[in-house]
Amino acid sequence: MCLKSFYRFWNKAESALGKSTLYMLTGLILLRIISLALYPLMDTTEGRYGEMARKMAEMNDWITPWFDVGVPFWGKPPLAFWMSALGIKVFGVNEFAVRVPQFLAASSIIFICYDWAKRSFINPFYVVAILSTSFLFTLLSGAVTTDMALCIGSTLSLRAFWLSLRGPEKDRIREKWLFFIGLSIMLYAKGPVGWVLVSIPIVLWAMLTGSIKESWKGLQWILGCTLAILIALPWYLLAEQHTPGFLHYFFVGEHWQRFTVSGWKGDLYGSAHARPRGSIWLYLILATVPWCLVGPIFAWIAKGKKSMEGKIENNNFKLYLLLTGLSPCIFFTMSSNTLWTYVLPGLPPLALLLALYLGEVKVKLAKIVLLWGVSISVISMVGVLTALTLGHKADVKSAKAVVDLYKAQHSPSPIIFLSDRPFSSMFYTGGKAINIDTVDEINKISKNNLAYIAVKKSQLSRLNNVPILLKTIGDAGSYRLYQIN
After folding, report:
1. Most exposed of 33, 176, 311, 482 (fewest Cβ within 10 Å)?
2. What is the mean pLDDT of the segment spanning 354-372?
């Protein structure tokens, strides 16, 4: 029965996309799964979040993510860390374990969009092909970040809002509650910023289409939001009780000063990402490659159509998808503290929008465009993965290579990092890597037991004044490993 269902599904996909496009898309998905274990966790983001998940799994502390020993991480709620920590519990401490939950999260988002498209009379296979091959979405589907967790909640809420108003009548009650479940997920993923990203397009769409009354009456806003908060509230209260000071830092620092204070200095875990205001729009273009190159063209073609059944409703849906897709850019336009991953919640609705436009042109033309886009994405991803693995680009951004070289010495002595102890070194040593700040400390270490020291190649000149003999073990990644006698 399952094989028959799969066969029917495959035939529908082949009919919609074409055989070549479907095979390349399937190959890309399989390649992404395999690649999860092919290259090391890269610093700082992957190494940081991977190590925090490892600590969570090791300590069985599911309340507070720990930035370092004795240092709680107040920057993000725990959903993404829970996901990776569960991966570690199942698969052990390795790259695949912390990355595969992100891939599963991306798959969930694709399923949500597939279902949304079906219920909105959009070709769902178009949406799957476009979203799964958008550059940023493909990259983050195998990266240890908190963004995919947020995107699950935002996509679920945005989908549920539309279907609760304009979807099939029999599904509307369910969708009304799914909207608030999405809000609760966002509180566990990144906090109230997710609510803002969802509120912006809903409010703008309601105002621009004269649907304020319909939008207000369509959902149980007060009751639903209260329930969403109550679902998340226990963790927030436990987190504050566990490490007092969390609530003030998280809500005031992370959710106000980070976005309103240029070059915010209050970040306890690094530095704010200072960028020129408006950079988020450039990030959106990069994130949506290759589809950003054809989207405006098909929007212009569709605009030229003189007649279409249900044109007003169709245009309302297009406006909703456009606003939801651009919501992150609208919100972060005036912020100088941005990353390109911030545009991720906008990619699912933009994929639906382009799929909607493709559905309005001849099937043959749509298939040609999809073949072109998927081909570009496959070539790009193969290039990126080749650079990370065979080109050893990931090794340069990770401490795994030097830790492997250290482990090959089969010594019980510790590995020490000069000045910079990357998070990936903690992940790959089980939290046993040591940090020293100055070369003078090397002299003190030499008087004790045998040890190994990893120094970045760019900092080798700092060892010129070290009076003791350092035995070179070898180079690995961006480090040189020495033995201290």
Report:
1. 311
2. 92
Q: In total, how many domains does the chain have?
A: 2
**142, 148, 143, 139: which is closest to 383 by C-alpha?**
139
Q: Is the confidence at residue 285, as pLDDT, over 80?
A: yes
Q: What is the mean pLDDT of residues 233-257?
A: 90
Q: Which of 388, 415, 449 is the last residue of a domain?
A: 388
The pTM is what? 0.92
Work out the angle between the directed axes of helices 95-119 and 124-132 (0-180°, nearest 10): 150
Does residue 1 lie within any of the structural domains? no
Evaluate if residue 273 carries a pLDDT over 70. Answer: no
* Average of per-residue pLDDT across 37-45: 93
Same domain, 372 and 447: no
- pLDDT of the residue at 464: 80
Question: Does position 229 have pLDDT exceeding 90, yes or no?
Answer: yes
- Looking at the structure, tell me whether residues 420 and 377 fall in a common domain: no
Asked if the structure places residue 3 within a domain, the reply is no
Query: Tokens standing for 239?
Result: 């987190």
DSSP state of 167: S
Q: Are 144 and 45 in contact (CB under 8 A)?
A: yes
Indicate if 16 and 120 belong to the same structural domain: yes
Residues 364 and 464 in one domain: no
Are 329 and 434 found together in one domain? no
Q: Decide: helix, strand or coil at residue 101.
A: helix
The domain in which residue 360 lies consists of 9-388
| Residues 64, 180 share a domain | yes
Q: Is the pLDDT of residue 297 over 70?
A: yes
Comparison of pLDDT for 268 and 151, the residue scoring more: 151
Query: Is a pLDDT exceeding 80 seen at residue 105?
Result: yes
Q: Residue 307 pLDDT more than 60? A: no
Q: Considering the domain boundaries, does residue 373 fall inside one?
A: yes
| Centroid of chain to Cα 352 | 19
